[in-house]
Sequence to fold (254 residues):
Amino acid sequence: MWADPDRAILTYPLFGGGTLEFGWARSGGGMSVGTNPLMARVLVPPSTGVYPSGWFVVQGKRSLIKVKAEFDVLGGEVFIPDWLRADMFEHHYNLLRRGTGA
Amino acid sequence: MIKKRKGWFRHIKPSSPVCPRKPERMLKGERLTILHTYYGSNVNLSEIPIPEGKGLADIQLSAHSDEDGDITLEFYAREVYEEENPHYEREMKHYKAEYEKYEKRRDEFKAELAEWKAWNAEQDAADVKARLEAAERLLRQHGRLPGGPSVG
Fold:
């Protein structure tokens, strides 16, 4: 239903290398009501860690303001919070289960 | 680990005690007295029995139509009153007793709310941890993540 964002609207450098990106999902066809969900992506070099690649829907925080509030407090390099990692792993497991995952 | 109390729910704050209303020595209000009722729409305003010392500004009109379509006009005299509360002493005594109870409940409530917030945050953190562990374990099982702990 949702297609990957065409651009990142928020980017944070990750502690130890890599970036964390946020963007609005694009409509992937079909009918929808309300704002498109927020999606995120983790890009890290293999030396930092291994994460599933690709965009995932952010469910732990519903608004961009709340996401910004959480990361802007840290300033500079950020860690991936547990709620975001949970969203990422859940999303990629769901893709895998549906047979559409990488 | 905070123990859940009876009547606590996730994401719903416990309700605060209600402050009792302070009684008033002087009662202020508006009183409407019916002057005249007309059944029909032809009304001569000079027929309205306006009380002594009142003008048309003190008269309130209400019109309503009943089931057969006739219009009923009702004229009321509006009077603003301010009189002493005859039950003031009794109400004040009751109020003081209620307010003491309220103050005690309010202090207990503040402590309970702080405890509820800590409990709710604890439950949220436990939920996130459970989701993360389950999803991470499943991805590992399917070979999408390496066996060692992830870095982040």
Observations:
- The interface with chain B takes residues 14, 16, 48-52, 60, 79-80, 82-83, 85-86, 89-90, 92-93, 96, 101 of chain A (CB under 8 Å).
- The two ends of chain A are 17 Å apart (CA to CA).
- The beta strands of chain A are 2-3, 10-13, 19-24, 26-27, 38-43, 56-57.
